[in-house]
């Protein structure tokens, strides 16, 4: 058996054992720990094969796992690969063809519907075909350059010969996925690792000096840093249900030079949560809601195979509960920034409709932030006031 056949066999074994309960990258790490004889090149090839398999979603389930692994490499890659040279040289010669022409060679149609089985659940503003086919491409890594350090950042990238793209009229730099940013850019205060679509949510904030803002599901604090960079004099409260996450946030804030904020652990779904807030009121509340994460599945394509449709409604109920509990703490005339990294209508437009029907808030601006086409996540963000 050749090395390449061994790679396909190992990837087939992984897919047979993987049940979706762990993120795929954690499962792969455990698998390789149990097989220490595999070198870094072996691990890289096998991992790539497995990810290619899951990028195909529901496409061509009638093929064997091994056949889908090789077809996945053909469909997802655009330059010649040693694996295809060895196992399917006739495909490798056609690797640069558009997806539609590759599909014709495979005699199996490659459509968004075949890849992503939940297209009927999408927000109406999303291009279903473009979104579904985007799973065949690995998203890029994005950084947001801070403190006017763009020239210095680009100089270091150029010196390291790292390809990059500066997105038009922004501080956003796109890099190949897997770029060792922390090694290249050792001054952490110069940048934040943040998806391009996530960065775009900041266009809805409009903070003013000395206003009080609450990032109520702060997680690692990316939106709060974005807010503070826009208006350093904002009085900020950050909260999250997980103490460990807030500890990570505080470390990230320290590296970014963010000071003068309050942090607290808070379960926004608890019946008695409102009693813990007293008479506090905020000019702005950022509700980056827990969600399906479906707009980020290009980074975790295994989710397409293991996510259950009924989970969308469960997330919506959670979002309704949180919105119900936090909206009363918004000042009259204040702004609620509702954000998800979901592509599903129930979590997006339907949730905004719920907020409007159950409060005096009305959507002012925002909507779907499409990441497909630029290698970014797809998100939803609106400002209500």
Spatial shape? globular
Q: Indicate the CATH class of the largest domain.
A: Alpha Beta
Instruction: Compute the separation of the termini in Å.
Output: 65 Å
* Topology-level CATH name of the largest domain: Rossmann fold
Strand order of the largest sheet: 7-6-5-8-9-11-10
Protein name: RsmB/NOP family class I SAM-dependent RNA methyltransferase
Binding site for S-adenosyl-L-methionine: 240, 267, 288
Active site: 341
Organism: Chitinophaga fulva
Show the helix and strand layout:
Elements: H1 3-17, H2 24-34, H3 40-55, H4 65-76, H5 82-87, H6 89-92, H7 99-106, H8 112-115, H9 128-133, E1 141-145, H10 150-159, E2 165-166, E3 172-175, H11 181-184, E4 191-193, H12 196-200, E5 212-215, H13 222-230, E6 235-240, H14 243-256, E7 261-265, E8 282-288, H15 302-306, H16 311-326, E9 330-340, H17 349-357, E10 363-369, E11 379-384
Parallel strand pairs: 5-6, 5-8, 6-7, 8-9
Antiparallel strand pairs: 1-3, 1-4, 2-3, 9-11, 10-11
Helix pairs in contact: 1-3, 1-4, 3-4, 4-7
């Amino acid at each position: 058996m050749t090395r390449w056949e061994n790679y396909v066999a190992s990837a087939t074994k992984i897919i047979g054992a993987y049940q979706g309960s762990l993120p795929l990258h954690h499962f792969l790490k455990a698998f390789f720990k149990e097989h220490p004889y595999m070198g870094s090149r072996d691990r890289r090839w096998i991992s790539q094969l497995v990810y290619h398999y899951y990028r195909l979603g529901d496409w061509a389930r009638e093929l064997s796992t091994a056949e889908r692994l090789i077809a996945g490499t053909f469909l997802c890659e655009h330059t010649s690969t040693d694996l295809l040279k060895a196992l399917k040289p006739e495909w490798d010669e056609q690797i640069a063809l558009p997806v539609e022409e590759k599909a014709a060679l495979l005699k199996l149609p490659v459509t968004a519907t075949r890849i992503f089985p939940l297209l009927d659940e999408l927000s109406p503003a999303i291009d279903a075909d473009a979104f579904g086919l985007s799973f065949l491409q690995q998203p890029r890594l994005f950084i947001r350059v801070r403190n006017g350090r763009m020239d210095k950042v680009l100089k270091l990238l150029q010196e390291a010969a790292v390809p990059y793209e500066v997105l038009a009229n922004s501080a956003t730099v796109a890099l190949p996925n897997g770029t060792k940013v922390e090694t290249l850019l050792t001054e952490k205060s110069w940048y934040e690792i943040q998806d391009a679509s996530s960065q775009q949510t900041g266009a809805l904030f409009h903070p003013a000096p000395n206003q009080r803002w609450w990032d109520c599901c702060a997680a690692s604090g990316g939106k709060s840093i974005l807010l503070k960079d826009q208006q350093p004099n904002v009085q900020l409260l950050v909260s999250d249900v997980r103490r460990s996450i807030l500890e990570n946030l505080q470390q990230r804030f320290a590296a970014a030079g963010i000071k003068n904020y309050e942090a607290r652990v808070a379960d926004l779904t608890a019946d008695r949560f409102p009693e813990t807030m007293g008479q506090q009121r905020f000019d702005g509340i950022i509700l980056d809601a827990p969600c399906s994460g479906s707009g980020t599945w290009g980074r975790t394509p295994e989710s397409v195979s293991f996510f259950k449709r009924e989970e969308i409604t469960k997330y919506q109920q959670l979002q309704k509960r949180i919105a119900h509990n936090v909206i009363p703490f918004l000042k009259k005339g204040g702004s609620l920034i509702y954000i998800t990294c979901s592509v599903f209508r129930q979590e997006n437009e339907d949730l905004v409709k719920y907020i409007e029907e159950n409060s005096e808030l009305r959507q002012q601006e925002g909507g779907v932030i499409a990441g497909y086409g630029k290698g970014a996540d797809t998100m939803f963000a609106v400002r209500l006031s």
